[in-house]
Design a protein that fits this description.
Residues 22-44 have a biased composition (Low complexity). Residues 64-378 form the Glucose/Sorbosone dehydrogenase domain. With 402 residues, the chain is mostly beta strands. Helix content is 2%, strand content 38%. The chain has a domain at 61-323 and 355-370: TolB, C-terminal domain (Neuraminidase).
């Protein structure tokens, strides 16, 4: 696919700053004027100013894509939520389905695609070079959400040896979480939702409304806050984005309900406040809840997947139909007086250009890959010359201001 679109946008829209006392006003944080000496001063984002986003359509007509994981050779393994299928997308734009037999058939037999549920997240062991790859998948079943492990043979384009490694995650037609990722420590991180029952998020016995940390076999990982428990953090409504910076600092995106969506820095044992708090809460960390480092009105974000680069965190937004960029200025500290240290002013990219954005992945050369999600029942699928084009995998090259 050679379609190429050049989008030039000015990233300088001022946004409201939310306070941390009383009811927060819709908005996003700005850098603190008392940022530590190790961090650049506020406004020192080297990309502050007009940024050019060159967008290439790599592949299109993907049916409700949800998760993507990189493979060698600039390829991606993509999950299709409702069809319960997988495909390898090549840099040429070719979409090669994994055979609908063996492990894929087993997966389809136990997956229930209902509302926001179905075949969701995917992760591939980055140590594998092929043609055999260890793959982890997150699916919604009849009774629960579960994480499964399988072997992908790219020579035969088959999935086999499907094994459940973690089950019992609450399911519903919404708030299923679903993002999974292998962290820099080699353990598997699993983002779950509250499954529509807000009590799950604060219940230490429930796997819902949590970020979980487990071994590749699904056992609680060594060093978890509570030995023998897979729970890494709690108090989440619906996490769908996980990522780490070069220092190992962990980030997660979270859907709010009616007011504010969040970007959080995740600490082991942290409680992020749901359902008591949406966005920053009164009392901040003194309440026992950890405040987000950035937040937005739900109409401007509804963030799903995220990508973390050396210079920013990028959030793919569904309802907001844009790619948010939150600059990284240095080491963060707790939010104080309504302002976040170590983060620059968020800016929007691709606003309204490609509709709903589900996932984003950064590659070492600085490019971003973005999955659109307009065929999920909540978007407006695009057409060109009367032919459907959605959903699409986009390659985005960002050029900072000169």
């Amino acid at each position: 696919m050679d379609t190429f679109v050049c989008v030039a946008r000015v990233l300088g829209v001022a946004l409201l700053v939310s306070g941390c006392t009383g009811s927060p006003e819709p908005g996003v944080v700005s850098p603190s004027p008392t940022a530590s000496a190790s961090a650049p001063s506020p406004g020192a984002d080297p990309w502050d100013g007009p940024v050019t986003a060159d967008v290439e359509v790599v592949a299109q007509e993907l049916p409700v894509p949800w998760g993507m994981a990189p493979l060698p050779g600039e390829r991606f393994l993509v999950t299709m939520r409702d069809d319960v299928t997988l495909a390898v997308v090549h840099p040429s734009g070719d979409v090669e389905p994994v055979a609908a037999s063996g492990g894929v058939q087993e997966l389809a037999d136990q997956t229930v695609a209902d509302g926001e549920g179905g075949l969701l997240g995917v992760a591939v062991d980055p140590e594998d070079t092929g043609p055999l790859f260890t793959v982890f998948l997150y699916r919604t079943g009849e009774q629960d959400n579960a994480v499964l492990r399988a072997e992908l043979d790219l020579d035969g384009m088959v999935l086999r040896d499907l094994t459940t490694v973690l089950d019992g995650i609450p399911k519903s037609s919404n708030h299923n979480g679903g993002r999974i990722a292998l962290g820099p420590d080699g353990y598997l991180y699993v983002a779950t939702g509250d499954a529509g029952d807000t009590a799950n998020a604060q219940d230490p016995e429930s796997l819902g409304g949590k970020i979980l940390r487990v071994t590749p076999d699904g056992e609680p990982a060594p060093g978890n806050p509570d030995e023998g428990s897979p729970v890494w953090s709690s108090g989440h409504r619906n996490v769908q984005g996980l990522g780490w910076d070069a220092s190992g600092r962990m980030f997660a995106s979270e859907f709010g309900q009616d007011q504010l969506d969040e970007l959080n820095v995740i600490e082991p044992g942290g409680n992020y406040g749901w359902p008591e708090v949406e966005g920053p809460g009164e009392g901040g960390d003194q309440s026992g809840f950890t405040d987000p480092v950035a937040w937005w009105p739900t109409s401007e974000a509804s963030p799903s997947g995220i990508a973390v680069t050396e210079e920013a965190v990028y959030l793919a937004s569904l309802r907001g139909e844009r790619l948010w960029r939150v600059p990284l200025l240095g080491e963060p500290s707790a939010v104080a007086d309504g302002e976040s240290q170590g983060f620059g002013e968020p800016h929007a990219l691709l606003e309204g250009e490609f509709g709903r954005l589900r996932a984003v992945h950064a590659v070492p050369d600085g490019e971003l890959y973005v999955l659109t999600n307009n065929t999920d029942g909540r978007g407006e699928p695009r057409t060109e010359d009367g032919r459907p084009v959605d959903d699409r995998l986009l390659r985005v090259r960002l050029t900072p201001p000169e």
